[in-house]
Specification:
Blueprint (H helix, E strand, L loop, with lengths): L1 H14 L14 H10 L3 H4 L5 H12 L3 H7 L9 H22 L7 H9 L3 H15 L18 H19 L3 H5 L13 H12 L5 E13 L5 E13 L3 E12 L7 E6 L21 E9 L2 H14 L4 E8 L2 E11 L2 H15 L5 E5 L1
Antiparallel strand pairs: 1-2, 2-3, 3-4, 5-7, 5-8, 6-7
Helix pairs in contact: 2-4, 4-5, 4-6, 4-8, 5-6, 6-8
Length: 371
């Protein structure tokens, strides 16, 4: 029996394409993978070969020693044409039999050698193959793009210098405790999770009034462009060391800066440990895919346009995310994806994806390059 099992695995290794796992690739958690597989609605799951969904679910159950649950997934008609499913099922039965023999204790003493052999007869090649398929499923990014693409720095030396100068002037006016000069660096559309322009002004005036001095030093400055608003916009990140008469800190910080045209001043639209440029992006027209190159976030995938539009309407009425629906073919079937974008660089898209999918409580979002 075991010899036949290893022959089957050998055949699988020959005819199944090997997928090398990139150590720098991004993966969803196993809990997220389990939830997606169990729900059985996402495009990623529907594209699996017949029986692979059950194999992956059973593999995850076996990792937690849920043998009966694994056998339940492997007892459907779907797995009949999947040779790996038969092998994983054999492993589940082996574990169940071994556990029963151990529970028998002294009553099974006469069969000690047989129990030992049963315990050592693990279907290791089958489990490795199942784990490989699970890892392939857990990849967050689509296979058509690099798992980690370096951002393209499109800043000219002049633009970079103007941004750095604006940041230094903002720091200088902040240290001066001159509230009017400090607020001159903020756009009237300024917005954070807690404050708008007016409430931010009141907040900063109130806390700075109690300070005798402020000293600020910044280091490790990085500047990334954002092509999603009218005019020029950048995200500036840095390490900020803040000292005042009544408070000290040393934190990572980001600013989102905009200038309406080349001769205008850079003004702050958002600031904090993390900024959210999508608050200020112009929404794309309903159901129209962007025509320029960039990155999009896949939020959901549906077999019917009606269901995709339902999700689109929920997002449209509750959030500022740019959303639209596109139709694509997956495994020969037409599906409808709800997407958000467009983002000029992958880091911006990934930053937005973490925020958007957390707010929507959607598991399994992934990035895609729109060319």
């Amino acid at each position: 029996m075991f010899a036949k099992a290893f022959i089957l695995i050998g055949c699988l290794m020959v005819f199944m394409p090997l997928q090398s796992l990139n150590a720098t690739a991004e993966y969803m958690s196993k809990q997220t993978a389990y939830d997606l597989l169990k729900l059985n609605q996402s495009e990623k799951v529907l594209a699996l070969a017949k029986g692979d969904r059950e194999v992956l679910l059973a593999t995850l159950e076996l990792e937690h020693e849920q043998v009966d649950a694994a056998l339940a997934w492997l007892s459907t008609d779907v797995i009949q044409a999947n040779p790996l499913a038969a092998l994983i099922k054999g492993e589940a039965f082996r574990r169940k039999s071994f556990a029963a023999a151990l529970r028998a204790g002294s009553y099974a003493h006469a069969a000690h050698d047989g129990i030992k052999k049963l315990g050592n007869a693990e279907f290791t090649p089958a489990l490795r193959e199942a784990e490989k398929r699970l890892q392939a499923f857990m990849l967050i990014d689509s296979a058509s793009m690099l798992a980690q693409e370096e951002q393209t720095d499109t800043l000219t030396a002049a633009v970079r210098a103007s941004v750095e100068s604006a940041v230094q002037l903002w720091i200088k006016d902040w240290q001066s405790l001159n509230h009017k000069a400090y607020m001159s660096h903020f756009d009237v559309s300024f917005q954070t999770d807690k404050y708008n322009y007016q409430s931010w002004s009141q907040h900063k005036q109130r806390i700075n009034r109690k300070k005798a001095f402020i000293h600020i030093q910044i280091s490790d400055i990085k500047i990334v462009t954002d092509a999603n608003v009218a005019g020029e916009a950048v995200i500036v990140s840095f390490r900020q060391r803040y000292q005042s008469s009544n408070y000290n800190s040393n934190d990572y910080k980001e600013l989102y800066l905009l200038r309406r045209h080349a001769g205008a001043a850079w003004l702050i639209l958002d600031e904090g440990k993390h900024v959210y440029p999508e608050r200020f992006h112009v929404k794309e027209a309903h159901n129209i895919k962007p025509l320029v190159a960039g990155w999009v976030i896949n939020i959901g995938s549906f077999q019917s346009m009606k269901n995709a539009e339902k999700m689109l309407e929920v997002i449209k009425h509750s959030y500022l995310f740019q959303t639209f629906v596109v139709s694509v073919k997956v495994a020969g079937k037409k599906v409808y994806r709800v997407q958000s974008g467009l983002y000029h660089t992958r880091p911006l898209a990934r930053h937005a994806m973490l925020d958007i999918c957390a707010k929507l409580e959607v598991a399994g979002c992934w990035l895609e390059k729109n060319i």
